[in-house]
Give the backbone structure.
Amino acid sequence: MSARTLPLLFLNLGGEMLYILDQRLRAQSIPGEKARKDEWTDVDRKRVMNDIITTMFNKKFMEELFKPQDLYSKKALRTVYDRLAHASIMRLNQASMDKLYDLMTMAFKYQVLLCPRPRDVLLVTFNHLDAIKDFISDSPGILNQVDETFRQLIETYSCLSDGEFQLIRQTLLIFFQDMHIRVSLFLKDKVQNSNGHFVLPISGPVPWGTEVPGLIRIFNHKGVEVKRAEFTTAGNYFIPQREGSFELYGDRVLKLGTNMYSVTRPVETHMSGSSKTLASQAKENIAPNPLAKEELNFLARLLGGLDIQKPAGGDTGFRLNLFTTDEEEEHAAQTRPEELSYKVINIEATQEPGRRAELSRILGELEVAEPRPGSAEKGEDLLALMDGL
Amino acid sequence: MRSLALRNSSSALYNNLAVLCPPARPPAFGAVHGTILSLLGSEGPPRQLQARGGGSALSTPLLTQAAWCELPARVLLVLTSQRGVQMYESDGSTMVFWHALDVPEHPAAHSVFARGISAAGGRFICVGTSFGAVLVFDIPPKGTNVTLNEVLEQHRDPITDIAAEQGQDGAGDLVTADDSGTLCLWSTGEEFTLLGQIPGSGCTCSSVTLWNGIVAAGYGNGQIRLWEAGSGRICAQVSAHARWIYALDLAPLTGKLLSGAEDSFVHVWKLSRNPDTDDIEIQHCHAECVTDTQVCGARFCDPAGDTFAVTGYDLSEILCYGPA
């Protein structure tokens, strides 16, 4: 309902994606000297992160994103992240991409639900951006792009009222409704129940500006307080020490949106199997074509602004596995319940010839105009890159 | 506590539970899920109503609220959405009227929607909009000849909730609330008159009730405030919830007040007038905690307030509480 929801949704999901990719790349990386030609190194990891972040914060792309617009379907948004994840030499199979998207969405759903005030979703966004700036701290060019987006966020959102932020939050919650994929990290930390619903604590700090529940004050005709009474409940709250900073730099205080993944804690998801709540999700997935037309317009505009480069050496790239073994990934692909399939939009397969021509033209423009300098060898490619600096 | 299964879970929207209590029959319920209203009738199978008015827009518009409006001659079921106002016969079987909001061609930075529904003055149905305007519809005793009688333009922020007087000695028949916490009191009639305005302090009033000249309002900072409708003075302030209040309801026979919030709690309070001082007072009666759920709807199911029902975000059921 709020036409200002998309930038927050996109940036926070993007932030979670980067946390997960960074963790998986670190987990699978081999020290540079020991690595074979097809194995990940630290240099590769940094390059993948740089490439994706550069693409994500592309100026034209951000301009499109910040235009007031309704949220589009999960299908359409998933297609954008597919493209983003492949903005570099990294390749993900369908099963790994599915798992990545599951983790991203459940993490942000959790953060939105647990925000003490609706306005705190901005602090969550700033936490993600602070971490992104850390990933590319030694690339001033990209850092500039991220700061630009930061400033645009502050400009667009600082003046919004609490009521408008609540509308944004409600719009996000409608987007995440009925998603109950179980994430092992959440289950282990006891922030998610075995039925996929998140744990909502009834103790802790109250939101900034809210009082601890319990006090009743009665006033007389003259507006003077004449009576006080108290009531007790099961909750156990206290006043927080300070408010988080909404400036470009500052202590956000809120921990939601910071990186919860680390190399030693692999993250798995469990498909919750068929249940009543999946029925409404399934209905959305088989939406008729007329709806897809508007989404394709949106994707064309959005992806038209993305500067995606094909990897040197053809389509092979370097595969990242979100699972522990290739067998696990294969098994996940085969056993994913039908209702949870994202049915990613296959743009080339659209029925309308006019629309197909338009999109082919845009996709064509995304092809790299000239070949990359250097040979197809991974090592030489990196040298060429460094020479270019 | 009893649980009634819903076909869909409830969305996180203010006042997201509609209840109709016909005399001597079990109540009917309605809860919004995205673009759909799920109805659990007292008779017949559960029904679903959809938001209307796709047109050139992206997809089916989202619903914001639903409520049964009880008028002396008839009961209508009203739905508000991003596109306009839909009115049905009380069982949801036939659409009686559709009013489209002026929606701009390209989405503007300010969202457009209708929200806030109440029957008023025995003859009207009032619906709020995101522009701050309140639409007053004149409802004929039967048939579809509903007309837009008046547009009340006093609020400058999106309307959140509207409530009509319940009980006697009302100083004003209607109260309207908005995102900035501003409350307006009106007397209903062929032309509505503004009786008074209680300025907001920036904290959203998401839910409001009016009873025997007392306005009870629930706010985004978890507070409930009681105001005297006639003078606009504050009577009581309660630190009721730890998070945003989403729903308030009032039982007119007893003055019981129900509040539900994002903090998972539902509280029952009792309003009264001190016979010696004539001060309006409120006391806490009862609390329920809906574990791991952000409450988005709460309504009494009988005029004395002995039973009540609750909905929550992502919850595919309606929880009904009553005496043991």
